[in-house]
Structure formats: structure tokens, C-alpha cells
Design brief:
Strands 10, 11, 12, 13, 14, 15, 16 and 17 form an eight-stranded mixed sheet that branches. Strands 1, 2, 3, 4, 5, 6 and 7 form a seven-stranded antiparallel sheet that branches. Strands 8-9-18 form a three-stranded antiparallel sheet. It is built from eleven helices and 21 strands. The protein is an alpha+beta fold. Helices cover 33% and strands 29% of the residues. The chain has three domains: 170 residues, 3-Layer(aba) Sandwich (Protein Transport Mog1p, Chain A), CATH 3.40.1000; 192 residues, Protein Transport Mog1p, Chain A, CATH 3.40.1000; 73 residues, no CATH class. A hairpin with a 5-residue loop joins β1 and β2. α1 packs parallel to α5, α2 packs across α5 and α5 packs antiparallel against α9. This is Lipoprotein. Keywords: Signal.
């Protein structure tokens, strides 16, 4: 697993569960440590006191704890690194830090020599959550360097399982995030808390056209999958659509006028018209509303309770939580959605890609840990998707050219027949000089005299032989 995929996993899980980190930390009791870790804590005067230690069966250890005071995110990371130093007896080498848009969450990989832990080279992942108000906390996922690439995923899954029940018991929404939030009234997110169960094992399903894959729990059925866009349904009313790409025009951008034309605000074709500056919740709801209107259907009622910004270069990445009602008699469904937006490109256009999952609130709450696993287990073969799209574009261009040529041929034939009819009504004939190839339109009498005098040189021309620009 590459560090890029690890970072994606961090932000997906972080967006859903790190809001509960401080709750989990406060609930954590000082661990009854044993072995090298316990000895290390004693040797450092209890530096690890208040840290919850979780041994993961497949390998690796998780250290989870609250941080005193109100540290800034960099200070919080510094405190966590101090704890790693105390634990391992060596100063860790921290790599590049990733942070979310609000800056409250920091995460980074590090290497360290476990001098207090059998002296082995070790690798780890450190995550800190430092809000401006409230309890700060940190988590460290640590294992031997040669095993870390294969155990980090299971450690991260275990971390989410530990944190998620704390979030549910404290009244947090299932799979809710931290950071910049916008409240939009009562929603399923504010309903009675539901305790999340452990994450279910996922089975990898590959799209028939090879453009992607997704991990789904047992009982789920992949209903449609092509060009990186997949729909699936679960056994308890859950549904998802991942990789749903929507073309957008920014009607406030002057360059968009060529595309918008005189549409009076409505976007042409499969486009939707949404200002690029619109807030995420507004853009998300506008896309659903306009696409439903284009399909002449009643738009769904969407209530976004919380928006979580995720750090992303060259665009925007937001998780949204709330509920959605498709007016199909099923009532409100709990909604978890990820919206990735590109910058504005040519002619005021941009693109949003949606990963949407919804279902009955009780079910979604119970499956919060599984939902957190499904998001990072979707992958898209962008190169293959682009190849298919480009092929379809070329086919469309060829079909358009064929149509244009057919119309041109029809118009030319019509113009020839009109010219021929006009000549007949005017008692005119088109004559060709076979020696020079020249055409001339003259009276029927003169044409007959020329042809009669020298039939080998002068001949009459039927409309099919007319020359454009000369005979018509």
C-alpha cells in the first residue's frame, strides 16, 4: 500500500471518526501495560500515563490518549512525538504532515528505532486532533518497520472501532466528522444514538469494464458499474453510488456565456448550473435538484447537518452528513456523501464527483464502522475511464460528421433539383462544351441549335451534372 493510499485512508476515517477522538481519549483509563512498553513507561517517570494501549492481533500497537491544555495542532503533534520518544527511547523522524482544511487534524508517518522495544527499526502513523475549544487528543499506530505496511490497515480499522462506540454513546451522529460544520435544522444526524458494530469484512468486486473496483460487505449487490461509476444496494435498504461524475457550468463566470446561451439560467444538456463559489451543501443539493428537474422528477429533500473539509491539492474535498428523502415513501434516509470538486477550467466549466451512501438511520448507525471501510476501498482506473470517454467522444464526432455530410448531400440534391425545375419553367437548358468542359445556361432554342449543329461537342446537362456555383 502506497503512502498516497494511506493518506486517503487517514482522511476518510478521520472525517468520520476523529470528532469522537477526544471523547474516546477522556473515556480511556490508564492502561495496564506489560512487557517492554510497561518498562519504558516506568523508566520515563510515567510519561505514558493516561495513554490507552491496544495490541492488535495481526500485529502492531495503538496508543491513544488525551492531551492536556489547549494545544495548537503543531504543538499537539509535538507532544505526541515526545510520547513516542519516551516510549521508544529514540527521537522519531517525522515525515511530511498532512492536515485538513480547518487545520484541526494533523497526520504524518514517522520512523524510529525502538531502543526500549528490542532495538528494532519501527514505523508509525501519528494523528492528532486539536480543536480551538474542547479536548485535544492523539493516536499513534506503531509496528516493526518490516511489518508496518501490512498491519497499518488493520490497526487503523481497530482504531476506528475503538473510537466509534464512544461517538455513538455520546450522541454523535453515526460516521460524523469534525472541523467546519454547518447545521441545517433537525435531521437524522440528531436522532437517538445507535451503537456501531465492528466493521464487516469486505469482498472486492471489479467493474465489468475494468474501470474500477469496490469492497462490499456480504449481502451487497453491485447493480451497475461502468466508467468508474458504480451503484450497489445492501440487504437492509442501504444504497450507494460512487464515482458519479457531474459536469457543471458556473453561470457567474463570464466565459460560460457561450455555453449558457439564452437558456435563462438553465444549463444545457447534461450540465448543471452551479456557481463554483457556492458552499458545499448548496452545491450538492443544487446538483440533485437540477438533475431531477431535467429528468422531470420531483427533486429529493436534502438536509445537510454537517460538512467536513478534507485537505486536497488542486480542488476541494468535502464529506457531508445529514439525511435525504427521495419522496418514494421510504421517508428520510441517513446520508453520508463525499464531494470532490475540480477548479474551474475552460468556458467556466468544472466537475464534481460524488460518492454517496444512504439508508435507514438505524442501519447506518449500526454499520458506521463498515461504512468507514467502504469509502477507501473504492478505486477508479482513471486512465481507462479517460480512454473509454475519449473513444466515445471520437465516435460521437464521427457520427456528427456523418450526419452533417448526409444533411449536406440532401441539401445539395435539393438545390440541384430546384435549379433544374427553375430552368424548365424558364425554358432554359444547361449546355456543356465537351472540348473545354465549360458550362453555360441558355435558352432551350439556342441549346437545341448548338446541339443540333455539333452534337459531338455540345450536350445538354441534367441536374445531377450541374456544377455548384456555376449552374446553381
Amino acid at each position: 500500500m502506497t503512502h498516497r493510499i494511506w493518506r486517503h485512508m487517514i482522511w476518510v476515517g478521520g472525517a468520520m471518526l476523529l470528532a469522537a477522538l477526544s471523547t474516546g481519549c477522556k473515556a480511556a483509563q490508564p492502561p495496564a501495560t506489560s512487557g517492554a512498553a510497561a518498562q519504558a513507561a516506568q523508566n520515563t517517570g510515567g510519561a505514558q500515563a493516561g495513554v490507552k494501549t491496544i495490541a492488535v492481533p495481526n500485529g502492531g500497537t495503538i496508543y491513544l490518549g488525551a492531551l492536556a491544555g489547549q494545544p495548537t495542532p503543531p504543538d499537539a503533534m509535538g507532544k505526541v512525538m515526545q510520547r513516542v520518544t519516551a516510549l521508544c527511547g529514540d527521537r522519531p523522524q517525522l515525515g511530511k504532515l498532512d492536515k485538513n482544511t480547518t487545520g484541526e487534524i494533523l497526520a504524518g508517518f514517522f520512523t524510529v528505532t525502538g531502543k526500549n522495544l528490542d532495538g528494532k527499526p519501527m514505523e508509525g502513523l501519528a494523528i492528532v486532533y486539536a480543536p480551538k475549544t474542547g479536548t485535544a487528543g492523539g493516536a499513534v499506530l506503531l509496528d516493526d518497520a518490516d511489518r508496518f505496511p501490512t498491519t497499518v490497515n488493520s490497526m487503523f480499522t481497530r482504531l476506528k472501532q475503538v473510537i466509534a462506540p464512544s461517538a455513538s454513546s455520546s450522541g454523535a451522529a453515526p460516521a460524523s466528522g469534525s472541523g467546519a460544520a454547518s447545521n441545517a435544522g433537525p435531521s437524522a444526524a440528531a436522532a437517538a444514538p445507535v451503537k456501531s458494530g465492528p466493521a464487516q469484512p469486505l469482498q472486492r468486486a471489479v467493474f465489468p469494464d475494468g474501470t474500477g473496483s469496490i469492497g462490499l460487505p456480504a449481502g451487497w449487490q453491485m447493480q451497475n458499474a461502468q466508467k468508474g461509476d458504480v451503484s450497489a444496494a445492501g440487504p437492509h435498504g442501504e444504497k450507494l453510488r460512487f464515482g458519479w461524475t457531474i459536469a457543471v457550468i458556473d453561470p457567474t463566470n463570464p466565459q460560460s456565456r457561450a455555453l449558457m446561451g439564452n437558456s435563462r439560467g438553465a444549463a444545457p444538456g447534461n450540465f448543471v448550473a452551479i456557481p463554483h463559489s457556492a458552499d458545499p451543501a448548496t452545491a450538492f443539493k443544487a446538483a440533485f435538484t437540477q438533475l431531477a428537474q431535467k429528468a422531470r422528477k420531483q427533486p429529493p429533500a436534502i438536509d445537510i447537518a454537517k460538512v467536513q473539509d478534507i485537505a486536497m491539492q488542486g480542488g476541494a474535498n468535502e464529506f457531508m452528513f445529514g439525511d435525504i428523502d427521495f419522496n418514494d415513501g421510504q421517508g428520510k434516509q441517513y446520508l453520508v456523501a463525499q464531494m470532490i470538486s475540480t477548479p474551474v477550467v475552460t468556458m467556466g466549466t468544472w466537475q464534481m464527483t460524488l460518492h454517496v451512501m444512504y439508508g435507514p438511520q438505524q442501519v447506518m448507525g449500526q454499520e458506521a464502522s463498515t461504512i468507514a471501510e467502504i469509502f477507501p476501498n473504492y478505486s477508479r482506473n482513471t486512465q481507462m475511464v479517460n480512454a473509454i470517454v475519449n473513444q466515445q467522444i471520437q465516435q460521437s464526432i464521427a457520427q456528427t460528421n456523418q450526419f452533417v455530410n448526409t444533411v449536406a448531400q440532401y441539401n445539395d440534391s435539393s438545390d440541384r433539383m430546384t435549379a433544374g425545375m427553375s430552368n424548365m419553367l424558364r425554358d432554359q437548358t444547361v449546355v456543356v462544351d465537351t472540348q473545354t468542359g465549360g458550362h453555360a445556361t441558355t435558352s432551350d432554342d439556342l441549346a437545341g441549335a448548338l446541339i443540333g449543329a455539333n452534337p459531338n461537342r455540345f450536350q445538354s446537362v441534367s441536374p445531377s451534372g450541374y456544377i455548384p456555383g456555376i449552374d446553381y
